[in-house]
Amino acid sequence: MIWQWWLSLLYALAVVVAGDLYEVLGVSKRATDREIKKAYRALSRQYHPDKNPGNEDAHNKFIEIGNAYEVLSDKEQRAKYDRYGEAGLKGQHHQDPMDIFSHFFSGGFGGFNRGRQRGPDATTEMYVSLSDIYKGRVIEINVDLQGICDECDGSGSADGKTDTCPKCRGQGSILTEHQIAPGIVQRVQYPCDKCNGKGSVIAHPCKQCKGSRVMRERRPYNVFIDAGAPRSWNYVLEGEADQSPDWQAGDLIVHLTQSPKDHYGYRRRGANLFRKEMLSSKQAQNGGWQREITRLDLDSTITLSRKKGVSVQNGEIEVIEDEGMPIQNGSGHGKLYIEYVVIPQHSGSHDEL
Ligand SMILES: [Zn+2]
Ligand SMILES: [Zn+2]
């Protein structure tokens, strides 16, 4: 199990928590419970190990976030921490950050509880430069999505109370009878319009979401781009689409495409790279030249050269092994194909020949 190694890592790290707990959550010392909750909600999702595979920094951060929330969300612990700092928490046994996380998100919202109807997937588009695909990197993105209202925790109620609908008396539907002819009664049942068939109403709707239980929110994510990733692919963030108390959130699908711009003169086919290099007819005929071309890491160069007396034909192709794109999840690189284009001499010069 992947959890086992990192659980042991967790406990090892839980001991060495450092840094100000408020800073960890990015809130002020006067933050309200709700602000602390909100910060934890956003950060814990961003740094969740499931979303940051193999990223140790993110794992450590996730642990810190969990520990900070554990202390600051507890009145007594927070008061001790405010008064005595870390020392006030000595001997305190930290909970497993994964438990804190699942407990937080098991309150009937978020994408982490199973068994409810699944909501729709969400997609977002992103372009990635060829150089980024060459090197591999993490890109931070922000996506506007529907989230559970953090003011009322998805209840829609300002005071947390819901009342039985007075119109349908909690039935959710209303039964009417019409006499359509003497002795003939038609019964019609329809959903209650006061409570939309729910059977309950909220006397004091939440001010933030106006009783809708959801709100728009901007969520940060890390998108991992493998070195050598294909020209077009989907990065799936499970359970991160629009949230609703009524469903289990679908997946957020980040559709990544290699940008048609920023190619630095390279064209790509699979793991191979292609580029054209111009030579003057003098260089092509006589040889004796050297040139550096930028490698796609944008940090080093590839040397092309011909010794004196070595000529190059127009259209000649030089194949350089291991200078193509990295092989995704493998080792080595594809090939680089250089096509030489010899620039003809100026037309005026023909007369001199
Ligand atoms: Zn009703
Ligand atoms: Zn609300």
From TrEMBL:
InterPro entries: DnaJ_C, DnaJ_domain, DnaJ_domain_CS, DNJA1/2-like, HSP40/DnaJ_pept-bd, HSP_DnaJ_Cys-rich_dom, HSP_DnaJ_Cys-rich_dom_sf, J_dom_sf. Residues 20-85 form the J domain. It comes from Wickerhamiella sorbophila. Keywords: Chaperone, Metal-binding, Repeat, Signal, Zinc, Zinc-finger. GO terms for molecular function: Hsp70 protein binding; unfolded protein binding; zinc ion binding. PROSITE patterns: DNAJ_1 (PS00636), DNAJ_2 (PS50076), ZF_CR (PS51188). This is DnaJ-related protein SCJ1. Residues 136-218 form the CR-type domain. Residues 1-18 form the signal peptide. GO terms for biological process: protein folding. A zinc finger (CR-type) spans 136-218.
